[in-house]
Amino acid sequence: MGTSKGIIFKLFVVVFCFSLNNYGSEGGRIGISKEEDTELERQLKILNKPPIKTFHTEWGDIIDCIDIHKQPAFDHPALKNHKIQMKPTFSPKRMITEKTLNVLEPEPSNIRIDGIECPEGTVPIRRTTKEDLIRAKSFSKTTNSSNFDNPSERAISAVIILENEDQGIKYFGASAEMYTYNPSVGEDQFSAAQFWIESGPTIFPLNSIQAGWIVTPQLYKDHLTRLFTYWTGNGSSVTGCYNTLCPGFVQIDPQILPSSPVDHTSTYGGKQYALNVYVSQAKTGDWWLITAHGRKIGYWPKALFNGLSEGADRLKWGGSVSLSEGGISPPMGSGHFPDGLPSHSCYITGIMYTGQHEELMNLGNSSVVGEINCKLYDLHNWGFIKGVGNAIEVGGPGGKCR
């Protein structure tokens, strides 16, 4: 798949609306049954293994260093006999070789480490509390439900979509450089910039991997801008979770984990920072999470998926937010509409996909214009920019969307 021959790129803007099923108010805890409490305790025993070493971070997380072979991932039934991979089988070369647009050169938004370094043979796992699990369940329903019955509670995503209409053509990875911001969100809202790797129906049994940055007190109980990931193998109905909140993602890096905060964020009209994220499938079928400077954080084993075991059907890049219980949406990106100035809205540049020969490919200039049915957000597709790759900018102030 080294060229675009035989491939139809459908690149369009769309808003996806997912209804929210409540589990609590403003991310809080409601009464749970004895059976639910017992199940939460069972999950905690799986997620919180005996640590070799523990770090208490400045931002409030407790990070445990766990034996790499005993980490929670291997409690997944499909991974009981999994042979751990310490590095991927690929080393793709970017198609961009020169910089010609100086205004699109933000400073790196590095992932915070702050002294975390697990001993050899161990990996960092964020310690989970019962409240974390309750909030995560509510958050997952907010962001991944596909029931349209309640139009007042939903998540909204302004994205571009790359999909192939020729049967049998697959995508094997996605990458992007996402300008980082710290939008103001309520306790039951989130705001993110991300990409999606998907196969199968858009509802059930959707196979999906997501990665990017997010601000969500409902998931982390703070307002920090953090790296985040999500996966599901069946439309979020049974399997899947954010970061390492369930068995599945195999942690490899001794310092950086999928829920780590970033050290700098952009300011409107001021200095800009960006986070590089790349997810690609290795020859083994495993999907690797890689950040700036080639840091290999870990991977989702092939066994977790059916539809993603041999590539993806479609890729998406853009911004996403969730409405509060009162139907109010938070700012997206910088909180300002795209106006063509890189210091004014959230740019996502270097948008590329991985071909079947492990090469990173540009999307090209083909595009189909779609519609955004929420006037409080917008997306501008710049297409291909020499030296930068494909680029978009997303943003908006939020408010009463409908």
UniProtKB/TrEMBL annotation:
Keyword tags: Signal
Any matching Pfam family: Neprosin_AP
Matching InterPro entries: Glutamic_endopeptidase, Neprosin, Neprosin_propep
Domain Neprosin PEP catalytic: start-end pairs: 152-402
Signal peptide span: 1-27
Keyword match Signal: yes
UniProt entry tagged with the keyword Signal: yes
The protein's name: Neprosin PEP catalytic domain-containing protein
